[in-house]
Design goal:
about 270 residues, globular
């Protein structure tokens, strides 16, 4: 009888943990959806274009997130991207099927590796800064001040950062792909694995509009959703600045898990 009661108590505790986790997940999804709808509404109104305060924040965020990240993205492309290109070409040459170069390049590098690596880098580069900035605004009551003045925090605090992340993600993804392919092709030609012009021909032959569209969508979507996750966690700091490092950790890990989940869903839907 005592053993039975012990097992029942363990099952009750497990059920409580599962129920609590489910409720927290539903609450997080509700907050995230509410944030997405509010930001989309502000964006579609297009009033922010004519407001210098919003555009100044966009420009500063683009400089911090994109311009200052450009050398690092080039370094990553020279390392990871060029190595991927060289291995793809070497694999195709070993099995004596050079027609695989273009398809593998577009499937592995352009569609999968470039947008995901750039989004992870932006998350590591600017994720903590976004949560910290929004968290300090929350703790100092700046969002409440904006509301009292009739100003939408979604327009002045959230939208500029989401726009900057989306634009920088797209541009840096293009940079990553171009640097990887061109420098990788030069490395391949220097090692006498394949002629550079023949390499470019194979890449062009395997280029498909479908993969380019996927790169554009993922290059913008992953950074945008990551930024929204970070903003959601930053807005939960409240009046306690000690919550900033906790929310920064939750924001970065949550954004990373969200990108992994979306990438799996994307692959399943894209290959239907």
């Amino acid at each position: 009888m005592g053993m039975l009661q012990t097992h029942i108590g363990q099952w009750h505790r497990r059920a409580d943990r599962v129920g609590l986790f489910s409720l927290q997940a539903l609450q997080g999804l509700q907050r995230f959806s509410r944030l997405f709808v509010a930001v989309a509404r502000v964006f579609l109104r297009m009033r922010w274009v004519s407001r210098p305060a919003v555009m100044n924040v966009v420009i500063r965020q683009v400089y911090f997130t994109g311009v200052q990240s450009l050398p690092w993205v080039i370094v990553i492309a020279l390392g990871v991207g060029v190595l991927a290109v060289y291995n793809i070409v070497d694999f195709a040459r070993r099995i004596q099927d050079l027609s695989l170069i273009g398809s593998l390049m577009n499937g592995v590098l352009v569609q999968e590796m470039a947008p995901f690596l750039v989004a992870i880098f932006l998350l590591a580069r600017s994720g903590v800064a976004v949560v910290t900035e929004v968290g300090h605004m929350q703790s100092r009551g700046e969002d409440s001040l904006l509301l009292s003045l009739g100003v939408s925090p979604y327009e002045y605090l959230y939208l500029p950062r989401i726009i900057a992340f989306s634009l920088c993600g797209l541009v840096l993804t293009f940079v990553f792909v171009v640097v990887s392919i061109w420098v990788g092709g030069l490395v391949v030609s220097w090692t006498y694995t394949l002629n550079f012009s023949e390499f470019l021909f194979e890449v062009q032959r395997g280029t498909d509009l479908k993969e380019l569209i996927a790169m554009i969508v993922k290059g913008m979507l992953y950074p945008m959703l990551s930024c929204m996750m970070l903003l959601d966690q930053g807005s939960r700091v409240g009046n306690d600045p000690n919550q900033i490092p906790v929310r920064a950790t939750y924001g970065v890990l949550g954004a990373l898990l969200l990108m992994l989940f979306l990438d799996v869903v994307w692959v399943l839907i894209w290959n239907l």
